[in-house]
Amino acid sequence: MKDDVINHSAKFSKSEKELHKYICSHLDEIQHLTIRELAGQAGTHPNTVVRYYKKLGYEGFTEFKGRIQNDLKELRYDDFMIRNSEQVIHTVNKMEALYRNVVKETKKRLSISQMQKILKEMNRRKYVDFIVYDANKALAEYASHYFFITGKICNVYTSIDEQILFAMNADPKDHMIFMISRSGASKRMVKTARIMHNRGMFTVLFSKSKKTIVSSYCTETVTASYVHSFKKLGDCMFYTSVKYLLDCIIASYYASNYDETLENVEDYRKEYLGVDTAERNKNR
């Protein structure tokens, strides 16, 4: 299929554009239609259907029906911006492409030695804590679940009074702190980071840059992808990037504490489900 024809629909006639919109909204249904039935349901002529699929590079209607949905899912785009009234198939494709691109770029910037340093410090501490607020709380809660599974005690602090009091009183020897801030300029984050810095606490910041006010008070700053633009899905980029980084940390910690983590999971299942899953699996 010709990507440039789809991505630049000006090459379609008016009737072909309308047909294209109909097809993109009824991809499952067209698998069972004839040319005449498709034309009737789309409000166009059979000849328009033939011109349309031939313009896309298909030799016959059977080939078109069999491949159009998968081919549309493989389209490439010049950018990830969502357009006014864009078809669902295109937004689905763009989100997949955005995820892949963000992970690729995040991985490219990732320092393995920095990750190893973070993991080493994590191994030395009993507690892993998060200082976050607003939407970043969801990322912290997600990671907290897995840190608990690996045997860490993980708390998420979201209110300013909790954050400052925690920073004032937590024992630096026992706690490792993750902070998440897109801009790295939040005044409340600066206050908390400064207190923890002065008390010698090991802090890791996920932010768009290593040159921010908050990062100047953090032990380590791990950069995540972000653009300050809603149209370019900047927030989605940041959350995807940070989740990937957290998953890397969680998976790496799990790998280096493999047996202990699996034992912890088994103990949890016994308590939660009231059964010995290891024994049950052995008897299968």
Quick summary:
The protein has two domains: 73 residues, Winged helix-like DNA-binding domain superfamily/Winged helix DNA-binding domain (Arc Repressor Mutant, subunit A), CATH 1.10.10.10; 172 residues, Glucose-6-phosphate isomerase like protein, domain 1 (Rossmann fold, 3-Layer(aba) Sandwich).
Tell me about this structure.
InterPro entries: Homeodomain-like_sf (IPR009057), HTH_RpiR (IPR000281), RpiR-like (IPR047640), RpiR-like_SIS (IPR035472), SIS_dom (IPR001347), SIS_dom_sf (IPR046348), WH-like_DNA-bd_sf (IPR036388). Residues 1-75 form the HTH rpiR-type domain. One of its GO terms (biological process) is carbohydrate derivative metabolic process. This is HTH rpiR-type domain-containing protein. One of its GO terms (molecular function) is carbohydrate derivative binding. The chain has helices at 3-7, 14-25, 35-42, 46-55, 61-73, 88-109, 112-123, 136-149, 160-169, 187-198, 234-256, 258-273, 277-282, and strands spanning 127-131, 153-157, 175-180, 202-207, 220-223. Helix 2 packs across helix 4 (46-55), helix 3 crosses helix 4 and helix 6 packs across helix 11 (234-256). Strand 1, helix 8 and strand 2 (153-157) form a beta-alpha-beta unit. It is built from 13 helices and five strands. A five-stranded parallel sheet has the order 2-1-3-4-5, with helices on both faces. The two termini are 49 Å apart. It folds into two domains: 3-75, Arc Repressor Mutant, subunit A; 98-269, Rossmann fold. It has 284 residues and is of the alpha/beta class.
